[in-house]
Amino acid sequence: MSAEDRSALVAVTIFPLVIVAGAVWAYMFPATASHLTPYISPGLGFIMFTMGLTLTVADFKRVAERPLAVLIGVAAQYIIMPAVAIGLVYLLNLPVGLAIGFILLGSAPGGTASNVVAYLAKADVALSVTLTTVSTLVAPIFTPLLVQWLAGTLTDIDGVAMAISILKTVVVPVVGGVVLRLLIPNVIDRILPVLPWISTLGISAVVAALVPGSAAAIASAVGVVFVAVILHNIAGLLIGYWAARATGSSPRVARTVCIEVGMQNSGLAATLGKTHFAATPEAALPGVIFSVWHNISGALLSLYFRRRAEAEADRKLAVQAAALADKVNV
């Protein structure tokens, strides 16, 4: 395993531990953690800004170079996860607050941690970055529309206000990061290795800031939410993989789509729940729990996919060696 691989493995293993530590601290000391509450939206904006710093012009050109793969991935993101979310709402007969939370979670764009998982899984990292970028940039359109459509019968939803929130906390910071990298690329390149760690600390702080307002909901509903989060994540991963394969994608691209679909921007979902559905604090809970779980499942999935990819490569080498031996013998 290369030094880069070891670094990525350490990162993807430690990420969930850092986030869990933040959540546990906030649950045990809610009065102290509540001081972070006013910084939820700025914190999410900072996380998205660090994502923007990692992007290059090539990541945007890839949309034109591989339009079908990008279309399949983004369409799967905004069809599969909302569909699974609404299915779980009815299957588990979730109360209104949790139903809204899962619809927000299912309607969110792809999570930034998916790029590290894609790297470890020997998936198509370049495509992963592009899918995350595109799904994030179109989120001000698709996320409010999906939430209004799927949760509009449960509560009043101001889709325009939600779109503006996503623009402010997601799109503008990402664009700002991209522009800054274009202006001072050499400086940004030097800090790129530490950006995932900075982003993880930011996610941990946002989760910790969300916990005090959801403490009562966590105490009363954490069991059913955890089960629903696991089902949501696993269903997204499985359906994402096989949907990509059904459209003719290669196993490597299918692994990429699988990871992108199954890993959500749960911080955005939780923040929207806190900001736009304050009367139902449970709405932020699915995003908070998902922030922890999808990093754990992502780490396990990356190891499984990595072993499969290495086994496939070994089989190809064996076939090529056998073919070469036959030619020599002839």
TrEMBL record:
GO CC annotations on file: membrane
Regions that span the bilayer = 7-27, 39-58, 70-92, 98-118, 125-147, 159-184, 191-211, 217-242
Q: Where in the cell is it found?
A: Membrane
- Record keyword Transmembrane helix present: yes
Q: What is its main location?
A: membrane
**What membrane topology does the annotation report for this chain?**
Multi-pass membrane protein
Domain of life of the organism in this record?
A: Bacteria
Q: Which UniProt keywords apply?
A: Membrane, Transmembrane, Transmembrane helix
Under InterPro entries, the record lists: BilAc:Na_symport/Acr3, Bilac:Na_transpt, Na+/solute_symporter_sf
Q: Which PANTHER family match?
A: P3 PROTEIN-RELATED, SODIUM-BILE ACID COTRANSPORTER
Q: What is this protein called?
A: Bile acid:sodium symporter family protein
What broad taxonomic lineage does this protein's source fall under? Answer: Bacteria, Bacillati, Actinomycetota, Actinomycetes, Actinomycetales
